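Example S7 (C-alpha cells).
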C-alpha cells in the first residue's frame, strides 16, 4: 500500500489540476476501432481452444449503499431471486460444461467487500464446474481537500475505516500481480483475462472478440459502444500526441471543454470497461513498472462532513501502455450496468429473459437498445422500489419512462412510447394492475381505473 499510494500522491502533487491540451486531441487512428459486425465467428474447435486459455475477472469492490443495500453490490438480487454473483457463476459454469474447459472466475474485492464475499462464495463450493479465486485491491488513505494531507492519523486501517478507500479499478493490474494469481495462471497455460464490472450483466465471454484478438495478434482489447445521452460522462478514446490510443475521462478535460466532451456528435463512442488483456504482455509491462504512470482521476467527495479527495486510476487507461491494442465497437447489448433501481427496472422487465445466467433481449423489441428509465427518489432504494412495483412489467414498446413523486405501479402494467408520471408533493398516483399506458403524461392525485 505505502509504495503505491506514495507514488500516486507524489504524481498528484506534481500534476494537480493538469488537464489535456484540447488542441492536441485527435480521433483514434483508422482501423484502431473495429466494428463488431466485421469479426469472424470462430469454429467449434477454435472456441474450445480459446476457452482453455481464458480467465474471467469480475471487479467486485463496490457496495450497494447507493441503492440502500448493505454489503457487496454483487449480492443484490436482480432476476428470479438470483444475485449478480449467482448469475456470473452460472455463466462460467455453462461455458466450462459446453467447452470442456476450466475457466476460473476471479473476483477482485475491496476491503469493503472481501469478508462478506468470502462467506458468500462458500455456497458455490459444490459447483464442480467453477473454481473461484479471490484477491483484494489496494487500500489507500483519503486526502483532506483543506490540508492536502492524508486523512488517517494512524496506520491502523480498521480503526478509521472511513479514512480509507479502494483506488479505482486501474489498481487491478498491480494488485493482480501482487496476489500471485498472474504468475499462477500463466504457469497453468492461461493467456488471456476478460475483465469487467460485476454489475454489467451483459459483460459475458464473447469468443468472437477473443478470436479476433488472437488472430490479429493484439495484446489488449477495449470494448466500446455508441454513446447515447445517458452516457455523456463515459470515457472515450482519442489519439493524443505520440499515443495512438488513449482513454480520455471527463476529469481530465478542461472545464471550458466539458460541453465538447459530453457531445454525442464529437465523441461518438465510450468505454464499456469490458477489457481483454494478454497476461504475458501484462506481466512484461508490470516488470518494467510500465503502469505506474496511469492518468490520475481526482475524485472529490464529502466523508463524515469533511471534504476529501480520492486519487483513482481507470483500468481502461492501460490501453496506452500495450504495444498492440485495439478497440471493438460492440452492440449496446453488451453494456447493461445496474447502477440504480432505474437500471434494475429494465433488467427485471419482460425486455430480457435469462438463459444460463445470461440476459437475452426479447426478439419482440422493435429497437436494438433498452428504453431510457428515470425513477424518482421514492424508488431510490431497493426495498422501497420493490414495494412500489407489482411486477411483470411489459415495456417491450417503451421508449422513455420518467416517474417522480409518490407513485405505485400495479402488476402486469403495459408501458408504451413515452410515459411521464408525476405526483406532486402531497399527492399520490396508483396505476392499477393490468393498466395500459401509451404516450401518456399522468399528473396530480389520482388512481387510474380504466385498463
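Recovered sequence:
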Amino acid at each position: 500500500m505505502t509504495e503505491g499510494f506514495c507514488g500516486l500522491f507524489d504524481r498528484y502533487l506534481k500534476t494537480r489540476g493538469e488537464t489535456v491540451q484540447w488542441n492536441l486531441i485527435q480521433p483514434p487512428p483508422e482501423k484502431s476501432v473495429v466494428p463488431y459486425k466485421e469479426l469472424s465467428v470462430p469454429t467449434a474447435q477454435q472456441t474450445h481452444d480459446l476457452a482453455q486459455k481464458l480467465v474471467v475477472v469480475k471487479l467486485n469492490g463496490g457496495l450497494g449503499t447507493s441503492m440502500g443495500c448493505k454489503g457487496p453490490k454483487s449480492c443484490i438480487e436482480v432476476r428470479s431471486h438470483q444475485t449478480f454473483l449467482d448469475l456470473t457463476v452460472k455463466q462460467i459454469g455453462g461455458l466450462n460444461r459446453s467447452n470442456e474447459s476450466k475457466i476460473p472466475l476471479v473476483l477482485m474485492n475491496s476491503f469493503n467487500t472481501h469478508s462478506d464475499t468470502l462467506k458468500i462464495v462458500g455456497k458455490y463450493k459444490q459447483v464442480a464446474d467453477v473454481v473461484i479465486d479471490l484477491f483484494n485491491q489496494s487500500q489507500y488513505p483519503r486526502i483532506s481537500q483543506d490540508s492536502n494531507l492524508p486523512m488517517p492519523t494512524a496506520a491502523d486501517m480498521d480503526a478509521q475505516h472511513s479514512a480509507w478507500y479502494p483506488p479505482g479499478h486501474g489498481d487491478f493490474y498491480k494488485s493482480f500481480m501482487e496476489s500471485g494469481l498472474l504468475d499462477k495462471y500463466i504457469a497453468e497455460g492461461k493467456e488471456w483475462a476478460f475483465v469487467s464490472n460485476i454489475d454489467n450483466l451483459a459483460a459475458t465471454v464473447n469468443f468472437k472478440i477473443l478470436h479476433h484478438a488472437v488472430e490479429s495478434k493484439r495484446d489488449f482489447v477495449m470494448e466500446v459502444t455508441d454513446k447515447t445521452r445517458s452516457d455523456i460522462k463515459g470515457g472515450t478514446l482519442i489519439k493524443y500526441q505520440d499515443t495512438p490510443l488513449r482513454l480520455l475521462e471527463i476529469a481530465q478535460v478542461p472545464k471550458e471543454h466539458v460541453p465538447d466532451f459530453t457531445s454525442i456528435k464529437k465523441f461518438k463512442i465510450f468505454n464499456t470497461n469490458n477489457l481483454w488483456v494478454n497476461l504475458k504482455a501484462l506481466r512484461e509491462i508490470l516488470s518494467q513498472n510500465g503502469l505506474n504512470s496511469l492518468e490520475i482521476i481526482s475524485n472529490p467527495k464529502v466523508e463524515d462532513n469533511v471534504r476529501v479527495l480520492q486519487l483513482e486510476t481507470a483500468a481502461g487507461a492501460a490501453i496506452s501502455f500495450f504495444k498492440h491494442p485495439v478497440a471493438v465497437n460492440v452492440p449496446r447489448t453488451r453494456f447493461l450496468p445496474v447502477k440504480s433501481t432505474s437500471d434494475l427496472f429494465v433488467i427485471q422487465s419482460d425486455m430480457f429473459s435469462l438463459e444460463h445466467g445470461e440476459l437475452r433481449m426479447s426478439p419482440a423489441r422493435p429497437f436494438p437498445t433498452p428504453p431510457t428509465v428515470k425513477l424518482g427518489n421514492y424508488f431510490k432504494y431497493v426495498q422501497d422500489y420493490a414495494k412500489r412495483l407489482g411486477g411483470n412489467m411489459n415495456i417491450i414498446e417503451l421508449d422513455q419512462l420518467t416517474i417522480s413523486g409518490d407513485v405505485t405501479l400495479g402488476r402486469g402494467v403495459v408501458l408504451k412510447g413515452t410515459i411521464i408520471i408525476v405526483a406532486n408533493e402531497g399527492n399520490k398516483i396508483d396505476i392499477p394492475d393490468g393498466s395500459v399506458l401509451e404516450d401518456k403524461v399522468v399528473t396530480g392525485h389520482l388512481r387510474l381505473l380504466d385498463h
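Notes on this example. The mean pLDDT is 91.
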